[in-house]
Amino acid sequence: MTLHLHPILRQSFATIDREIGAHHFSDDQYQVVRRVIHSTADFEFLTLLRFSAEVISTATAALAAGIPIVTDVQMVSMGIQTVVQQTFQNPVITAVEAGQSPLPGQTRTAAGMLHCTQAYPEAVYVVGNAPTALLALCQQLTVAAQSPPLIIGVPVGFIGVLEAKEALATSGLPHIRTEGRKGGSPVAAAIVNALLTLAWQQRTVH
Asked: Is residue 187 part of a domain?
């Protein structure tokens, strides 16, 4: 099956390319950056997105193998369903709906995410909304026996966001993150969709 990009999406990408011009990203990184800018119409993400070393090749190989994708909230899950179904049909699990009762002082999303690290240790983890989930994830996985192939950490907001992103930045875990307060579910979904598209294109080429 060929993954077709809608003509409007192609035109939008061409517009973004013209406005950005020369850049310092690798070709694969730029695919992710461009998709995020398309989803947000915010060119500031050119300076906010960060990639750990070799993370895209690791992530695309894992996605192509059909590993689960664990998201923090339903909005991220809904935002990736179409591309998931058009490509590798990875299982998509939403942590906030995992049914875990939070401990005192713990959010339901963080509790669900920690449960998912036990149930799906090989998964890609995606946080677009809840900094508490990202912080809990970093604390859990830095001492886990198995590291995930990718954590996407792009929560948006004012409380706990910078601390959670800093924890991810210094965790040593493979990740894609945004600096600062910006991010959100559309950004998280855009990153996943870009990686799935890249993995599918690489599969059909090879």
From this structure: yes
